[in-house]
Amino acid sequence: MRQKSRVRRAGRATAAALFAGSLAMGLLVSANPAVEAAPAAKRDRPGCQTTDDPPTNKWTFHNELGRELTAIQRKSLGRVKVSKVGESIEGRAMWAARVGFGDQVLMVQSAIHGNERTGTEALLNLLRELGTKNDRATKEILRNVTLVAMPMVNPDGGELNRRQNAITWDQVVEQYPQLEGAPPAWYFSQTQDQTGFDLNRDFHPQLDYQPRPQDLPGRQVDAGFYLSPESQAIRDMYVDLREEFDTPPAVVDLHHAGPCGRLEGGPQDGKLVSVELDYPPLGVNDGAAYEQEWPLLDQDLSRRYALAAANGMQDAVVDDQSPLAAVGRYVHFDEREYEGQGRSAFALNGSPTVLFEVRGQADDFGQKGMKMFVTAVQNGLDGIIESMATDEIEDLDGDDFFDLAHTGWETQADRDARDEWLADAPN
Ligand SMILES: [Zn+2]
User: Fold this and answer.
1) What are the tens digits of pLDDT across the range 160-219?
2) Average pLDDT over the chain, rounded to whole?
3) Domains and CATH numbers, the chain
4) Which end of the chain is more exposed for a tag (fewer CB within 10 A), N or C?
5) β partners of residue 358
6) Ligand 1: distance of its center to the CA of 341 in Å?
7) Phi (first) and psi of residue 265, to 5 degrees
8) 265 C-alpha vs ligand 1 centroid, how far in Å?
């Protein structure tokens, strides 16, 4: 059913050579570094329809999430256990739902960017199924895997329907008086009536890191500072699981990207992508600069988990032309480096971590389209969980991840995305 192209290594080398060439020619231009929030120029082919004013009332918002998790716990007769594990800066509860009792643990979080909503729906579906189904496959999963789901880890951003949380810099300084007079972290943004962090830059591989004024404002390639209660709660859950289990938890982070990404190469060449997957962006030579200080980093292991997710999505359908099988690799040119993302910080501590980027924002598509994406995300999570439960994850070849199609960023036409990112990286 699945067909693979075998051009991966050559493609990477070519991209690096092209990149060197573009540097030499001085082609760098300035642009927004947040690739997932700023679709590149490649995404201008016809046929990418978005909806101007889709109904959003079908999404689970924060007030409904608490009720829904309680209902799932009740219907599961205690198999799913829900607990409050933190509070947002505006006082909204953060929950974790735990199911299964295996010695391999998978921690999945959604909506750290508040308006990226399919992950929360996929997690609720997954919890409903693992909480009530009694077939052999489910029992095998529950016996071998412990799933800890953190649906909606940026509830304030979700409520405001935006990427950032809702913290002010004064609130940060109140929490950390030593930062009085220090410049705000580079990932803090302030507009006329809104302030907040891109929470997915607020992580540090040193899990007990305490903010120091001389570290601020930092750069996008560096670690973050754990300045927000939301990122602290995620970190605390991760630390707890590390202490409880023999092996570091696998971590999945569920996101959304631009609306018009198309696969290049492979059996679905030219098709709109459904979900792009990624392993940690830790700079050139597969994060080699981190290896000495963080010897547990295992990029190949992360790629195996990403591959398990891709297999889960592709194997769930019989037709490889199905949009549910339109899986690709998220932008990951060799230089891309975000130590401050949670997935990077946790990977440096030995966890395999996978990023899911669903095509389009929650308000780009109507409910029908988003239902398809929710299913794709759920299939991807199923793929990881089943591979963990059956130990298939051990047999995967991480290099096969590179056989997945990219969405243009490895080609000359889209080299700009890489150049723009580099040009915008503060020194
Ligand atoms: Zn995101």
Assistant:
1) 989 999 999 999 999 999 999 999 999 999 887 789 999 999 999 999 999 999 999 999
2) 87
3) 8-25+57-410 (3.40.630.10)
4) C
5) 256, 275
6) 11
7) 90, 170
8) 25
